[in-house]
Amino acid sequence: MKEIEIASLKRLTEFVKLNFGYDFTNYAMSSFKRRISRILELYNINSVENLITKLDTEKDFIETFIVEITVNVTEMFRDPSFWRVLRDDVIPGILLNHERIKIWHAGCSSGEEVFSMAIMLKEMGILNNATIIATDLDKDILKRAQMGKYTLKNMELNSKNYIRFQGNHKLEDYYSVKNNLAVLNPDLISNVSFRSHDLVKGDIFNKFDLILCRNVMIYFNQNLQNEVLRRFHGSLFKFGYLAIGSKESLIWCDIANKFIVVNNEEKIYKKFRD
To answer: What's the pTM?
Structure first.
């Protein structure tokens, strides 16, 4: 397959934005190009132009396209040291001033992070005091997140993370095995609202004590990262916390001076200025 030209990608993003309302014009070009190459290979499409034709003639294919572009590999208790800091420092800091805690998982993907949060809050005895919003652009992956079903192979890795997180129990205590799948206890997410939301164009829809958006913005260019971070700032209560991915940073962004660093290694920040 020949090299994908930038002009072709531009035509594709313009077509998708015009016809379906999804805006990928500010995605990091190298990442977007890799994912388009994957779509062409997976679905035996020999050019970007033919991909545009397929999207034009097979309207349902846009759902598949969105899944492939936004797929975000994740796991439960990813970066266990991060979760220990949340449990030992961040959550107690919030509860000093609030009886209840409002959390937004932005770009929640298939829900592993949401279940991790629920398990952690349950072990802290405060799950019933939490309101959690979990959002993603991909409606299909939101349905998967709500089901809370994961392969047993994935749960092996998740269990290792949980052990390193130093949880109170065993991860197996939180799921049952049915048809060779681990099914998480649905009571864990009884306080979770799953919503389709576009970080690129979506509105500020609430105020939160804690926002997690980890390993999502690495796929955005600097302009889009700036825009998303402005929205996160507007969505946080004063002295609320923002957690981003280990390869991401707030240092260079336009609103860096409105946050202080809580934990540089774990990329946790606190809003201290409106």
So the answer is: 0.86
